[in-house]
Amino acid sequence: MSLTRVLRTAATTLTKTMYDGETPTDASSAVTVAITRPDGTVVNTGTATKPPATTGIYTYILPGGPTSPSSVTWQLDWLTVTWSCTLAGAAVTFTDRVEVVGGYLFGLAEARASDPSLGNANSTTYPAALLAVKRLEVEIECERICGQAFVPRFRRALLNGSGRDALATADAWLRAPVRAASVAYLTGQTLTALSAGEVAQLAPTPDGLIMRPSGQVWPSGMNNVRVEYEYGLDSPPPDLVDAALLRLKSLLNRPRSGVPDRVSSYSNEAGTFRISMPGRDKTGIPDVDAVYESYASPIPGFA
Questions:
Q1: Topology of domain 3-101, per CATH?
Q2: Rounded distance between C-alpha atoms, residue 227 and residue 58, angstroms
Q3: pTM of structure
């Protein structure tokens, strides 16, 4: 399963390579594609295209634009892409994910301009597709270490009701309005959607809470509240962008390092040098880790 991030309202071309074992193989039937939201709603279907002079490769255009239903990227979302066909005599399905986001930590042109080694003159060594893949790695790692999103994103979450007016989520910088909410008053019961008016009264907070009006509570229970909301900053801080670009370069050039992967120190004519090691909460690059650490606690008491 692959993950692709695409900007809200943008169209993008999805690519899938079909394999029989390790060998790219053409399907013996049409390759159909279905796009669904997290609640199971089908928002788009169609047939993939096989580019000329290729084997096992199929593409599908994810339609963009500002309005639904002609666009599937009109709002922040998580989409499931299901590819179905007959391959090597068997009916098969493959699933990928697309996240519709409000921005990136940096653009691909910004990445190329950040260092001469990544410039257009070296686009063969560093093609756009590789930059996009490594950017995604940088973004996921940065968000994990810092515990927050630096661009607008979407989440659909199943949470435990608190029995109070405050519902705790896993994210900081919740954005108004809350998109949807459903509750069950007893654990195990079917969730019932709040009305549009009730949802409009929900108040998301920067420290990750969704508040109900005075006198109303989220019923206590396990996995008895489902909410859809947007979260994240409007745009990333400039120093974080600089750190993320430095991390990108390190990931792109990691195979080219002259230092063996498993050493923690090395020596040369100038002496012995200890290498900063990566870990769960650090990249191993001091200049990057210093910036990431400064954003690791977005709000006092929030983790």
A1: Immunoglobulin-like (2.60.40)
A2: 35
A3: 0.89
